[in-house]
Write a structure and sequence with these properties.
The structure holds two protein chains of two kinds. Chain A is α/β, with parallel strands linked by helices. Chain A is built from 14 helices and 14 strands. Chain A folds into three domains: about 80 residues, 2-Layer Sandwich (Ribosomal Protein S5, domain 2), CATH 3.30.230.10; about 240 residues, Alpha-Beta Barrel (TIM Barrel); about 60 residues, no CATH class. Chain A has an eight-stranded parallel barrel with strand order 5-6-7-8-9-10-11-12, surrounded by five helices. In chain A, strands 1-2-4-3 form a four-stranded mixed β-sheet, covered by helices on one side. A two-stranded antiparallel ribbon of chain A has the order 13-14. In chain A, helix 5 runs parallel beside helix 6. Chain A is elongated and about 90 Å long. By secondary structure, chain B is α/β, with parallel strands linked by helices. Chain B has an eight-stranded mixed β-sheet with strand order 18-17-16-15-19-22-26-27. In chain B, strands 5-14-13-10-6-7-8 form a seven-stranded parallel β-sheet. In chain B, strands 9-28-29 form a three-stranded mixed β-sheet, with no helix packed on it. The relative contact order of chain B is 0.14. The chains are: A alpha/beta, B alpha/beta.
Chain lengths: ~400, ~525
């Protein structure tokens, strides 16, 4: 009698693995590896496969691996996923080494101008993602992952967070809605994820549920660093509750708007002009400002239309947004360029900061420029403008000396 | 079976045979160290008296033409067509030779393509003894397994010319596929239903072979204007229904890349050329085929426009992107060795600034100078690069022969040779400790551009200095290697090679720079 075989992956997909596993009564362990590059990778493939099975405590069954050039951390994840599909009670796991370059920290007020979405089950797109220098990468477990790949995507993302160098980009994960999302957190939170994007948030309670789960996992795994949150508002209800959501957790560092679902929810077409979402976008900006966090705009989905992207970012900037979602690395540079401060903004900011520094040196409590008083929020905004200009390379770090 | 041959160590430290297909060969001695003496080869003396006074050299079939050329067993049949994977001539030629019962022929093509897979059958039944020319796809696989009777001899475009000129290869019969020809044998590639651009690679065959056959599917009344090949060198003309599929002259390597990483590499390369001070008014560059090189040209064009800089000439492989630059006035000339797409063909036909050249002008070792060394910069590909900047283009890390050399070796003589390459493919790192096959010595390779940083050959202190404050990600090659090795899971396991030679790689001067050994299965 043949046992059911549990498959993870697709044998046609390049730069990936396809793994299938079936339990067997004979008690033997049979491993069959098919690789076109066996001559270059044969023993490594074998040793990683054996280590993974031993980590998982698997001593019997039939395992077949088709190697189409994926990375080893993906192989580990796919083996683990198919073994667990065959045996749902299995609690063991096989973790790749936690690399030094995966352990850098983030901080609350960093720039989040661009965040690059990467499907959680397509590791090949993650390998060089950090090289394109987005402010953040998002390993996505939600909309870009098909239902039958959800379980393995969670493991691939977990392993990617331990293995890959994202070169300083903030490490974000978008979890699923509801219960699956909480399951996602269990794998993700211990892996130095910096920020969790919570999709389709409609009220504070939903967000608190996620936050509570995170705090519990942090406690269990002894994680000291905070996990920031970015709720995404994608419905009329979510938009109307935006202030409550923005203020719901002190882990919130930003709120984002998702327009595909929002326009569907209010029953209109999404247009380039964007009049239909003007209210929602302004609402999100105001809620964010009121809560003292960042407002982040939706993605621009036509990868080939760079001019359209630039216009869209200009609008977002005018409305008060500080960041934009990117679905392709080529979108990152235009986003950064359009969000950069203008020359006149920079000059004005320099003047304000110089006046502030001068006043401080003289021990004056009040800062004035051209006979006008300058309030502390204005100084803070000027500093932000300068920081942004430095980050975009428009102003040297040591500009005060010039 | 590969061949167990006496091997010696050449100057590059590579083990190479001294006899290649029965001919004495000289091991690589170093760049510019080998200059043969004596006179160049020449075709036999002929008299116009022996040719029709009407000028009409058309014969009824390939078979008749071959018979008139006194075809015999063991001869060398050379050819040039420019249809890449769309060639319809050479399979017909060898099918004809097979029917005529000919054996042990040497095929000396300007290049072979996957469409020439039927040649395997001709090798199996002894019609073809072996092939000396680029080996791609299934022919490469066949030769890599040591199944060919002779050794594969891989030469550059310039090296093919050199081998004919200094007598290393004697061509008995040359076959030139011409998209337009007259009955006298004057022919051109820039027009006709199978237009492919130019016939520069076939020029050497027309000048040095004992017999020359022109095959066309577009016979025009004398004179064929322009003539890229002179009918005065042609013995016979054969008219066929169709000689090539011009749609297939656009090969897979000539499509613009969509990969964000490769686009980024191309952009970095263009920025490097600017930062290094190469992109100045009146400069020159060459960008080969391959998606990244094409994208490089597009980025460079933008930088040139921004800076108001114009090139004096571009050496090509022309594509529509380079044609646009010519038409926008961003360069005075395209000096073209081969057209990679149909826009290139059109431009060559219509634009007097689009010049057809040959490997003699651009790449030839026995010329009194050549264009390659005049170029300010050239952008090329590679399958592997090692820590000493040596590069490989003919085999992959698993030791399989997969690509021809093309003009790659010849181009290394430019003033700044840049290889934009991804730092890894799947789990295979491109920067290795030592290249599997040495095709280009590191002393001629100046810059490697990967998505993980730009490595400048330490010998090029001028480039290092010029780009120091450019803000470009300039790193040590060892550093990039370490980073990639760590990501893909450590350096590769090495294929185990037997001591059987299956092919040799020639340097541009005809010496043997490396051998390709059969891999133990």
């Amino acid at each position: 009698m043949s046992e059911k075989s549990y498959m993870s992956g697709n044998s046609e997909v390049k730069s990936d693995f396809c793994v299938s596993y079936s339990t067997e009564n004979s008690g033997e362990l049979n491993i069959n590896i098919q690789s076109k590059t066996a001559i270059l990778h044969g023993s490594k493939l074998k040793s990683i496969t054996e280590k993974t099975l031993s980590d998982l405590g698997i001593k019997s069954g039939n395992l077949t691996i088709i190697d189409n050039g994926g990375q080893y951390f993906v192989l580990q994840a796919r083996i683990e996923a198919s073994v667990k599909a065959a045996n749902s009670k299995l609690k063991t796991e096989s973790l790749p080494d936690f690399k030094q370059h995966s352990q850098y920290k983030s901080f609350r007020d960093r720039f989040r101008r661009s965040r690059l979405y990467l499907p959680g089950n397509q590791a090949k797109l993650m390998l060089n993602a950090g090289i394109h220098q987005p402010d953040a990468i998002i390993l996505d477990l939600e909309d870009s992952v098909a239902p039958d790949e959800k379980d393995v995507a969670r493991l691939i993302v977990r392993n990617a967070l331990r293995t890959l160098d994202f070169f300083g980009a903030e490490r974000m994960v978008r979890i699923n809605q509801g219960k699956i999302g909480l399951k996602d957190l269990e794998e993700i939170v211990p892996q130095n994820v910096h920020l969790i994007l919570v999709p389709k948030v409609e009220n504070a309670k939903q967000l608190n549920e996620v936050d509570d789960k995170i705090q519990q996992i942090r406690k269990d795994c002894g994680r000291k660093e905070p996990v920031f949150l970015m709720p995404i508002l994608e419905s009329a209800t979510g938009i109307l509750n935006s202030l409550e959501i923005a203020k719901a957790s002190k882990s919130n560092v930003a709120i984002a708007i998702g327009l595909e679902d929002y326009t569907a929810d209010i029953g209109v077409q999404r247009t380039n002009k964007g009049l239909e979402s003007l209210f929602a976008r302004s609402q999100v900006v105001n809620a964010a400002r009121s809560a003292g966090i960042q407002a982040i705009d939706t993605v621009f989905s036509d990868v080939n239309d760079e001019d359209g992207l630039r216009t869209s970012v200009q609008e977002a900037k005018e409305l008060g947004f500080e960041g934009k979602g990117c679905i392709h690395p080529r979108q990152i540079k235009p986003v950064h360029e359009e969000l950069a401060p203008s020359e006149s903004e920079i000059e004005k900011a320099k003047k304000i900061i110089r006046a502030f520094v001068e006043a401080e040196a003289k021990g004056q409590g009040v800062v004035s420029l051209d006979s006008k008083m300058i309030d502390p929020p204005v100084v803070k905004r000027a500093q932000n403008t300068i920081n942004l200009a430095v980050a975009t390379g428009l102003v040297p770090k040591n500009w005060k000396r010039n | 079976m590969g061949q167990k041959l006496k091997l010696v160590k050449n100057t590059a430290g590579r083990m190479v045979p001294t006899m290649v297909n029965g001919v004495q060969s000289i091991p690589f001695k170093g760049i510019g160290k080998y200059i043969p003496k004596g006179s160049k080869a020449a075709p036999p003396i002929r008299a116009c008296h022996d040719f029709p006074t009407s000028g009409d050299k058309v014969v009824s079939s390939l078979k008749e033409a071959l018979e008139k050329c006194k075809i015999n067993n063991g001869m060398t049949i050379s050819n040039h067509h420019h249809f890449r994977n769309g060639d319809l001539v050479m399979n017909q030629v060898f099918n004809t030779l097979s029917k005529m019962g000919k054996k042990n022929l040497r095929w000396f093509p300007s290049a072979s393509f996957p469409c020439h897979e039927p040649m395997i059958q001709h090798m199996e039944n002894g019609v073809i003894h072996h092939i000396e020319g680029s080996l791609n796809g299934s022919l490469g696989e066949y030769a890599s397994k040591g199944k060919m009777n002779g050794l594969a001899v891989l030469r550059s475009h310039g090296g093919r010319w050199q081998a004919v000129q200094d007598g290393e290869v004697h061509i008995d019969i040359a076959i030139i596929a011409a998209p337009t020809a007259d009955s006298f044998g004057n022919c051109t590639g820039d027009r006709g239903p199978s237009a492919c651009g130019l016939l520069g690679f076939g020029l050497v065959d027309s000048l040095y072979a004992d017999y020359v056959i022109v095959v066309t599917d577009n016979l025009v009344k004398f004179p064929c204007i322009p003539w890229q090949i002179q009918g005065n060198n042609v013995d016979h003309v054969v008219v066929l229904d169709k000689i090539g599929d011009p749609d297939k002259i656009v090969s897979g390597t000539t499509r613009l890349t969509k990969s964000p990483d490769r686009l980024y590499i191309a952009e970095l390369t263009a920025e490097f050329v600017k930062a290094a001070g190469i992109m100045q008014d009146g400069f020159s560059f060459q960008a080969g085929a391959g998606g990244t090189a094409l994208a490089f040209a597009i980025y460079l064009r933008e930088l040139m426009k921004e800076a108001g800089v114009k090139a004096r000439f571009i050496r090509a492989g022309s594509t529509k992107y380079l044609v646009e630059m010519l038409e926008e006035g961003l360069t005075d000339y395209i000096l073209d060795g081969q057209t990679f797409d149909l826009e290139g063909v059109r431009s060559m036909r219509e634009n007097s600034g689009h010049i057809n050249t040959s490997p003699f002008t651009s790449y030839n070792w026995h010329g009194k100078g050549n264009f390659a060394s005049i170029l300010d910069t050239v952008v090329l590909g590679a399958t592997e690069v090692d820590l000493n900047f040596n590069a490989n283009v003919v085999t992959h890390s698993d030791g399989q022969m997969l690509h021809g050399i093309g003009g790659w070796q010849n181009c290394l003589f430019s003033k700044c040779t840049i290889l934009p390459i991804p730092s890894f493919r799947n789990r295979i790192p491109i920067i290795v400790d030592e290249v599997t096959t040495l095709v280009g010595p590191g002393e001629l390779i100046d810059v490697i551009v990967t998505e993980r940083g730009i490595a400048i050959n330490p010998k090029r202190e001028d480039l290092i200095k010029a780009t120091k404050r450019s803000g470009l990600p300039i790193r040590k090659i060892e550093e990039i290697k370490k980073e990639v090795d760590e990501m893909v899971g450590g350096p590769l396991e090495k294929p185990e090679f037997t001591n059987e030679v299956v092919g040799v790689v020639k340097w541009v001067d005809g010496t043997v720079i490396d051998s390709i050994f059969k891999v133990k299965q």
